[in-house]
Every structure is written in structure tokens, then in C-alpha cells.
Amino acid sequence: MTALSSNLGYPRIGENREWKKALESFWAGKLEESQFLEEMEKIRLGNLQKQKDAEIDMIPVGDFTFYDQMLDAAVMFGMVPERFAYAGGKVPLNTYFAMARGNDTAVACEMTKWFNTNYHYIVPEFEGKKLTLTENKPLNAYREAKEKLNINGKPVLIGPYTFLKLSKGYENSDIPAFLLQLIPLYAQVLQELETEGVKWIQIDEPILATSITKEEMKTVAEIYKQLNQAAPALQIMLQVYFDSIEWYEEVTQLPVQGIGVDFVHGLEKTIENLKSNGFPTDKVLGAGIIDGRNIWRSDLQERWELITTLSNYVPADRIWLQPSCSLLHVPVTVAQEKALDQTIHSALAFADEKLVEVTTLTNALHNGESAIVEAIQESRNARLKLAQSPARNRAGIQYSARTISEQQTKRTLPFNERRKQQQDAFSLPLLPTTTIGSFPQTTEVRQARQKWRKGEWSAEAYEQFIQNQIKDWIVLQEQIGLDVFVHGEFERTDMVEFFGEKMGGFVFTQKAWVQSYGSRCVKPPIIYGDVEFLQPMTVKESVYAKSLTDKPVKGMLTGPVTILNWSFVRDDLSREEVTNQIALALRKEVEALEAAGIHMIQVDEPALREGLPLKKSAWDNYLNWAVKAFRLATSSVQNTTQIHTHMCYCEFHDFIDAISALDADVISIETSRSHGELVSAFTDQSYDKGIGLGVYDIHSPRIPAVEEMIDIIEQGLQVLEPIQFWINPDCGLKTRKIDETVASLKNMVAATNTIRDRYSVLQES
Ligand code: GLN
Ligand code: ZN
């Protein structure tokens, strides 16, 4: 045996998002199926060739997909929901894409976030009908790599327990029946690989990093016993990532031949586990020593020291060095970034550069540290140079972010006392109507921005255009009859990018895209330095909107936790500290808005939920500092200034305390798709602050009827006091058309008026 370098998965999108382009052309009918397949093969083989050129020993195959790896697994097991009218056999491409995107007759499968990442997977639906193996995808991938590139690949497959836990459509009591069907199919896949002479398969079980119960762990043990018996000559690398293994002792005793462990996230716990339980002498350790979730170059000295520690527990020749998780979550290559500041550029490592780090460290395992001294020095110098740069040494900011006082995170008066003052200040009608912030971003708006960015339009021309949009929509909001207005967010493409571009400490790349869901890619900003407020960011537009109306206009900001969670964050400070820096900058913006006469300010936190750690035991700590950062950003205002917030998820139940602790005067929240659940949350627990339950779903072009919204409002009023109740759609309207938006909002106002009439009788009496 010898130490090997390994990879867990490679970004599928291509250096120039060729993957996205091929998919979208195919969907638009601009590519024939055969051309599409050809293009995809080219990208797939290109990705493999790059890993071969990088001299990775264990190259993953089968991680490539046309949409998503969970969808691939579902389709492979014939788990196509009834509504897609699948007739058996290999699942046709149009059925595959219909599951992902919906078609004229069937709604798409649900999509949700992959653990604590910003990647979304398609949720498989178990409908109880018979599962079959429609194709052996890992085997096909293995054969292709072997034939076309002479690569002895390591097939990658989502593990059965993760697959089960992430699927829906079944009750706990159905689990045995589900597994009874699923496990023989997995066994068959493994047997066919074994027959083919495949040496290793990587089975991904990230669910083992979450807080599963001991009972569940027993099921996992039974599953792997069966899989090992089915194909004893095929070696299984059981791959866990995103946090430490929950049941370390049990997992390391499973009848598999390798365990892949994340040595970046949850490291402390992992080292503790190693110290107290050791590592089995008959297994390979897949050591995920390079961060697959962030974009910074590693300090190879420090990584090498970690590897040295590991080799106290595992002989070096039984270690595979690898990234902590699939490289799907990072962009392809830094080489593409031509415009970045040199100091930042040298301190970055995307997928390709991370593979070089892996092989460099593997070289040291073979030949000793002396073989890589230059690389070590280079990595340290690059990190040191950035560490010493002025952007990372804004002493004032660092000091402020480290010395947050209780006082800074507290409003002067408690909510119930502020409430009275705010009522007097705004004299709003009962059940005030408002929106979440954005109005339709039409082609015209997007084109205007393009023209300005390309220099075809002057800044003045663009600004004038934005003002005209704001003005049009102030008029429309008057006509619709809303009570609290917004300016419409026409000047923003994206709610994080907009703020990142205006604060110090952020940098933007040209091509550092990562897949978010399907063909959709995002280019997260990079927080590389101390975050600094430079000048007011939103005051101009809000003040202009306010000048056009007597109605209150809500200022509109993105919250500190959302900005953090949707960026790549520097790795030399804690996330808490970086969030506090962002919060301090936003606090200045809040103050600037208030000083300019804006007395309602909404601070959106749609990504607060997704930053929750995988381990339940770590939730409190996260929620504590996240809530504190929000309060830091928002609590310096006067009692009469009303702070709003917005979140777009609906697990209110689990977080009602944290949400209440934000101490926002009003929260608007998405509930139109899960109204019943929400109503029950308020039956069980009390919430005293203002709350806008989204009364219609903005994700659909449908115009909701007045009666429908009356019903929803009435349901809400059964559990909430009319005095705390706000009426609004469930999210921003930027993806909707103008006509739809106006018609829906008019109906929303009509529904509100009907309810007000009913209540006015009560009020008078
Ligand atoms: N204010 C933002 C908007 O209306 C909120 C978006 C969001 O919740 N994701 O677009
Ligand atoms: Zn939203």
C-alpha cells in the first residue's frame, strides 16, 4: 500500500460555464439531443482529463450530472413520480428534465438546500411503488473514463442512508419497506462494479455528519453489512463531509474498507475522536485536509503538521489525501481571474489549485517534507502578504467588532413600549399593507444596467432611469392603495452583490461561478478584508422615493448574516467576527437612512436559516451570534423608527425564540405555501411583535383571487392579534411581470379592505 491523492467530485460547470450554456440551449430547442450529449461528453471528459493531468490517483467518476446528483440517483432507481407518466426502462432525458423543472402537466419535484451549502438538490419522492435499476450510472461512468481516457476511476454514488433521509413522500413506518426495495438495487450496482473489476467505490454519506440517533446508526450498520456481503471484493470508501462524524466509533467499525473524514469542518471533534478511539488498522483513512467549501489557498505548513498528527493514528501508507468534500462548491480555476489584485489572486485556490495542493502534500507523504519546502514557503508567503495588507489591518474596525457591548445591541425601549410610540408616529390603518421590497426587474431595467456597466450610458443617465422607475412605482403604489411603500430595488441586481460593491473588504471575480441549482450559477463575493462602511449605499433612492409621497417608505437593506452566508469569507477570523464587522457597517447605513428621514427600515435576513450548523448542539451558539449581529445593525435607532425584517422560509416553529430575539418591530415571512403549519406554530407558542404573513405566493405567475386571500388572512387572525398583523406578498416581486404584480396587489388590498370592514364594527363597539 501507498499513500494516494484523491478527489471527491469536480465542478461540472466548466471554466466558462459551458455546461450551463449547453443545458440552456438544449432546453430552448437550439441543440439537438445528440449535439447536447456530445457537448456534455466533451465537458465531462475535459474535467476528467484535468484531474488526470493533475496526477490525482483516485479520480471520481459518475459525479458529473446533467442537473443534480440526487436526481440522478432517483432516476437510476426508477423513482419517477407518477405524475411524469414514466413507462419504465431507461428514463428518457425529457422525463429527467421534467422532474427537475416541471412541464405542462406536472409540477417539478421540490428542490432544497444540500446540507449547509448553497447548492440545491432535487428531492426524490418515494411513492411506494416498485423500484428498479434503470441503469448502472457509476458503471457507465467508469467504463467511459477507462475507454476514452484510460483512467481507472473511482465511481461516486450517494449513499443509501443519505438518499433515504433526503427523500420525501414516506412516513417513518415506511422506512423498512423503502430500504427493502432500495438496498438490493444498491447491492446490484456494487456487484456489477465488482464484476467489472472496479477496485474502489466512493459512497457519500454526509448524513452521518448530522445529529442522527443511535437507532438510525443501527440501521446504517445493517445497510453496510448487506452491501459488503453483496460485493466483498469491491472496496467501499464511505465518505462523510461537512462536519465531524456523529457516531465515530460505530462508523469506523462498519464493514467498509475506507472512511473519508472532513479534516476542516468539525476538526476539533474529529481529532478528539481520533485520540480517544484511534482508527481501525484494517481501513484506509480518506483525509479531507483541503477546504472544499472555501476559496483560500491553504497554509501547507499547517496542513502538513496536521497530516503528521494523523500519521500518529494511521500509517502514512493507508492515508488518502483529498479535499474535505466535492469541489462542486468552489469555482473552477483562479487562472481565469485576470483583473484581481495580485495579493488577493495569489492567496486564492479554486478547484484546480486545490488539486495541486492535494498532490503536493501527497508528494510529501511519499518523499518527506523536504520534497515540498518551496511549495510550503510559497503558500505561506502568499497568505502572509494578504494578512499584512492594509485591508486586513483596519485596526479600528477590528477593535470595534471585538468589543461589542450589550448596550449596542439593545433598543432603548422594549418592544411593547416602542410600539405605542410608533403607532402614534405612523398612524397606520389596521392591517397595514406593504410589499417585501423589489418590484419587477423588467428587461428594460436589466438592459439599462448593462448599458451603464458597459459605459454606453453615463452614470447620470442611469441614475435618471432608476429615478423614473421609482417614480412610476410610487404612482402605482398610490393607485393600488398600499399603506407602506418601497422604492422597488431597481438599482440592484442581487441583494448581496449590491452591498458588497459599496463596502470596503469585498472583492468580485470575473468568472468564479459555482452551481446553485440546475443550470443556475452564482458568483459569490469574496470578503477578503475588514468590512468597512465607505459611504451611504441606499439613502439616495429611498429619500427620492420618500420625496414623492406622504406615505411611509421603507428603507431596504440586506442583513449581516445573509451577506455572510452568501459570500466566500476570509478564513483568518471567525464567522462571528466577520458578521459583526458587516453589522457595524450596516449600522451606519441604518443611521444614515434614519438621519435622512427614513423611519421604517427593513433589514432582510433570508439566509439566516441556512447558516445553521449541521449539529443540533451547535445551533444555539450560531443563533446567538447571528441574532446579536442583526441587533447590532438595527438597534441604534430612535424608538419611533420601525425596524422590519424579512425571511423567506417557513420553519417558524423551530426558531420562534430566535426570531423574536431579533427584536424587529415587524417581520414579514413566507407562509402562503404552508399556511396551516404556520398557524399551528402560533397556536403553540406566542409571538408579540408585528408580523406580515405572506398572503400569496410570488413564485407563480398566477393572480390570486380576493376570496382566497381573505381566507388566508382570516386563518392568520385566528391565532394573531389584528394589531400585530401586516398584509404582504410572501417575498420580493422582482421576478414577476408588471401586470401580474399590479393585479395581485390590487386583490390583496381589496381582501384587506373587506376584512377591515368586518373589524371596524368590532372596533367601534
Ligand atoms: N427585499 C428583497 C426583495 O424584495 C428580499 C428578497 C429575498 O427575500 N430573497 O427582493
Ligand atoms: Zn423572501
UniProtKB/TrEMBL annotation:
Needed co-factor(s): Zn(2+)
Residue positions binding L-methionine: 436-438, 489, 604
Binding site for 5-methyltetrahydropteroyltri-L-glutamate: 17-20, 113, 118, 520-521, 566, 610
Cofactor note: Binds 1 zinc ion per subunit. Binds 2 Zn(2+) ions per subunit.
Residue positions binding Zn(2+) 1: 646, 648, 670, 731
InterPro entries membership: Cbl-indep_Met_Synth_N, Cobalamin-indep_Met_synthase, Met_Synth_C/arc, UROD/MetE-like_sf
EC numbers for this chain: 2.1.1.14
Active site residues of this protein: 699
Domain annotation Cobalamin-independent methionine synthase MetE N-terminal: ranges: 5-313
Residues the record lists as binding Zn(2+): 646, 648, 670, 731
GO molecular function terms attached to this record: 5-methyltetrahydropteroyltriglutamate-homocysteine S-methyltransferase activity; zinc ion binding
Keywords: Amino-acid biosynthesis, Metal-binding, Methionine biosynthesis, Methyltransferase, Repeat, Transferase, Zinc
Pathway it works in: Amino-acid biosynthesis; L-methionine biosynthesis via de novo pathway; L-methionine from L-homocysteine (MetE route): step 1/1
Reactions catalysed according to its record: 5-methyltetrahydropteroyltri-L-glutamate + L-homocysteine = tetrahydropteroyltri-L-glutamate + L-methionine
Residues that, per the record, bind L-homocysteine: 436-438, 489, 604
GO terms under biological process: methionine biosynthetic process; methylation
Domain Cobalamin-independent methionine synthase MetE C-terminal/archaeal as annotated: residue spans: 431-753
Family: Belongs to the vitamin-B12 independent methionine synthase family.
Purpose of the protein: Catalyzes the transfer of a methyl group from 5-methyltetrahydrofolate to homocysteine resulting in methionine formation.
PANTHER family assigned to the protein according to its UniProt record, in alphabetical order: 5-METHYLTETRAHYDROPTEROYLTRIGLUTAMATE--HOMOCYSTEINE METHYLTRANSFERASE
Name of the protein in its database record: 5-methyltetrahydropteroyltriglutamate--homocysteine methyltransferase
Species the sequence originates in: Bacillus aerolatus
Lineage: Bacteria, Bacillati, Bacillota, Bacilli, Bacillales
